[in-house]
UniProtKB/TrEMBL annotation:
EC numbers on record: 5.4.99.25
Protein name: tRNA pseudouridine(55) synthase
Domain Pus10 N-terminal eukaryotes: 119-283
Keywords noted in UniProt: Isomerase, tRNA processing
Span of domain Pus10-like C-terminal: 299-533
Organism: Glossina palpalis gambiensis
Coiled coil: none
């Protein structure tokens, strides 16, 4: 709100300064008409009102002669907000006589009326016919799939419109040089006016509310003559802003035009060598290039348990061929996303760590989250979540619980303090000889110990080679009841510890290892993740019936 007030104050200050610069011109004008006296000169407010009225009227007459529509005329009069919704009332408020404006101009027909040619500055952007074209195109999309009552319209305009605004700027400078600034554009930008005018109309026709966080309707516009205009623009750019020798060619962008293509930096005489001033009226209006819908991004969290030793965490593809048919990521995504979005390929899967292919994850499971862009809804009912959990359970490979929508701010739980988290493992290990009480004594270490662990050879293709300190917080061992050569180890370690290498030592790359502690060879047969020290997302009991 403060930014809006400041913007309005700056505009008023600009208008007052503009009026001051034209007082001499106005004085001459009124003296010629016999209307000026000393008393009127002393009444500054009266003069200001008379000057503004005269300037506004002359400006509208000039714009009308240039083929500018009534909406764009209001742009050059710096109209704001609801002033675009009733052309007649706005012109009357500004004391402008407009012969072509009849009594039928109301809020129902706030757009410009059909003309033989399209507006020379907006190329028909604000015409009622073009509005209807946009609305019909939106209705042909799958907007009804989106469970939102709010929408926001984003319009992408062709760059040739920027050139036409600049051309009109030069035209106004030639006609009204005393009060048109060479650095600040004389009009309300087309994009800003489009938001003020088209958003309410589209929302009304769609029976939806305007809200910045609603479904984004991306409207892309084009014009058949734009390529010709851009070719001329490139030639103008090379002439006006020659590049240094051996430098790369600079692509012309909207930002570059806004920054460099102003009368202060580009002489009007040079501009007129490539483009007409003011812009000429054309018979062909803008055309609608595309309509795209974009829903908001949502985050679906939960915990998964991995029940098999033959499933990769993410798709495992080697040399273009799949090594495994399925993965945890794919099972979860294909069951969760059909209810929430169309494009599964853009869903991002994140989890608090990962298991090897042959490692199970039991207990309460591992926290995960899906980032789903262009979502149909921001809600996931308990019944819908329950059905998804049941469908995932049918795979017999993983199970999911606590499925729920979470806020973006909660994602810090997945990655923050990653190496400080504790993880609980159970390892089945094989000795070459029966376990002894001496071995068990050496492996029951409730106080824990620190290790130095080099990046395992098996992951060097994706991880840098480092030696990392890691804590084993506790170690407990007992002999398997069916085989005295098999030890069961319960290990509580710092996240990021490679448990397999902790057991066998990997040729001395982990120091100390379990093998070093007992001074004899030992290998790991099976490994399970029993628990992850992360209380997130919150436990939730999904049910077939919504609570």
């Amino acid at each position: 709100m403060e930014d809006g007030i400041l913007s309005r104050l700056n505009f008023l200050k600009y208008r007052v300064n503009r009026v001051k610069r034209t007082l001499c011109v106005v004085k001459t004008y009124f003296q010629t008409a016999g209307l000026l006296n000393i008393r009127m000169l002393c009444n500054y407010s009266l003069i200001l009102k008379m000057v503004s009225k005269k300037i506004n009227q002359d400006l509208v007459d000039f714009l009308e002669d240039c083929g500018v529509c009534q909406i764009c005329q209001l742009r050059y009069l710096k109209a704001r907000g609801n002033e675009y919704q009733s052309i007649k009332e706005t012109f009357q408020k500004l004391n402008i006589k407009y012969e072509k404006l009849d009594d039928n101009c109301s809020e129902e027909s706030a757009m410009k009326k059909p003309r033989k040619d399209v507006c020379s500055t907006c190329l028909g952007l604000f015409s009622k016919e073009f509005q209807q074209c946009i609305i019909e195109a939106i209705l042909k999309t799958d907007i009804e799939k989106y469970d939102y009552r709010d929408v926001v319209v984003a319009i992408s305009l062709p760059m040739m419109l920027q050139i036409r605004q600049l051309s009109m700027w030069y035209g106004l400078l030639e006609r009204f040089s005393s009060f048109i600034d060479m650095e600040k554009a004389p009009d309300v930008p087309l994009k800003e006016a489009a938001k003020l005018i088209l958003n309410p109309i589209i929302c009304r026709e769609l029976h939806r509310n305007y809200e910045a966080n609603g479904v984004q309707i991306n409207v892309t516009l084009a014009h058949n003559k734009e390529l010709d205009e851009l070719v001329k623009l490139q030639k103008l750019h090379e002439t006006a802003f020659p590049r240094p020798p051996n430098s790369k060619r600079q692509d012309i962008s909207r930002g570059l035009i806004e920054k460099q293509y102003i009368p202060k930096r580009l002489k009007g005489e040079l501009f007129k060598q490539f483009f007409p001033v003011p812009p000429t009226v054309v018979a062909e209006p803008l055309n609608l290039k595309s309509i795209e819908l974009l829903g908001p991004t949502i985050f679906v969290a939960g915990r998964y348990c991995k029940l098999t030793r033959e499933l990769s965490h993410t798709p495992w593809i080697l040399n273009g061929h799949r090594v495994m048919k399925d993965s945890i990521e794919e099972i979860i995504i294909r069951n969760v996303t059909p209810l929430l979005c169309n494009d599964q390929s853009k869903v991002i899967f994140m989890s608090s760590g990962r298991e090897d292919v042959d490692v199970r994850c039991l207990g309460k499971g591992r926290p995960f989250v899906l980032e789903i862009s262009n979502a149909f809804t921001t809600k996931l009912s308990s019944a819908a979540a329950y059905r998804i959990e049941c469908d995932i359970d049918k795979s017999k490979k993983i199970s999911v619980r606590h499925l729920q929508i979470v806020k973006r701010e909660e994602l810090v739980h997945i990655k923050s303090g990653e190496e400080k988290k504790r993880k609980f493992y159970r390892a089945l290990c094989m000795l070459q000889e029966p376990a002894t009480s001496d071995i068990l004594e050496k492996l029951n270490l409730p106080q824990g110990f620190e290790i130095k662990q080099k990046t395992p050879i098996r992951v060097l293709h994706r991880r840098p080679l480092h030696t990392r300190p890691r804590m084993v917080y506790s170690l407990k061992a007992w002999v398997h009841k069916e085989n005295c050569k098999i030890l069961v180890l319960d290990i509580v370690s710092q996240a990021g510890t490679y448990i397999k290498e902790l057991v066998h030592g990997e040729f001395g790359r982990t120091v100390p290892s379990i093998a070093v502690l007992i001074d004899r060879p030992i290998d790991i047969v099976a490994l399970d993740v029993m628990a992850i020290d992360l209380d997130w997302p919150k436990p939730i009991k999904n049910s077939y019936f919504d609570e």
